[in-house]
Amino acid sequence: MRLSGKRAIVTGAASGIGSEIARLFAAEGARVAATDTDDEGLQEQHGESKNISTLRVDVGNTDSVRAGLEGILQNFGGLDVLVCAAGVVGSKYGDGPAGECEEAGWDHVMNVNLKGLWRCCRYAIPAMLDSGGGSIITISSVTALCPPTEFFRSHAYITSKGGVITLTKSIAAYYGRQDIRANVIAPGMIDTPMSKRMQGDPVIMDYLQDRQLLGQLGQPADPAAAAMFLAGDESKFVSGVVLPVDGGWSNHG
Fold it and tell me: Per the confidence metrics, is the pTM higher than 0.90?
């Protein structure tokens, strides 16, 4: 029970990495609010858990974040951990390389991946200050550290994940003396619903096999284990760190 007594919010918790983080936190004793826009996915993943409450929150909408987090915080009576795992890759509005991307596509990805992170921090940080401190964990991507070659078309995604790193480090620097830690997890290719399309492309998989030094896809449990470490007291002297969980991709470059 390494997170016993912790109160945690996890965004993007209906599937993939966010779902696994919420599940692991609850198993380790945390009280978890799992949020997403996918109500069905939230219920499927967490409906039977006694330590996880689910709530529809759209990180791309300020009113939704404000109302959702205010309700959670009132119910919890404070906050110890915020995990920002919600994100999108690609866009129905026309995402792509910088020379082809539609402005609406760029704005959509930035609004969810980067501004959505800020929205959550905007309402979570005051609650953490009132609680005496806390841990903020953000999910970036190894692509922000080592942008891949021409096969990966979403420059908005890569840029947004670079912004996640910068914002998280800024929070760590500004709020550190007030006992708020902020750290980044940068996953490589993880076997999640978001990555399924890329897994079906042999060119992409050959590229990844060459760069992920361990020669395999990661599993959602891998970044979830990193998040548990960063959420708990074992990491009380760790802040402002970017932790790659990428099978060695960032070491390869």
Answer: yes
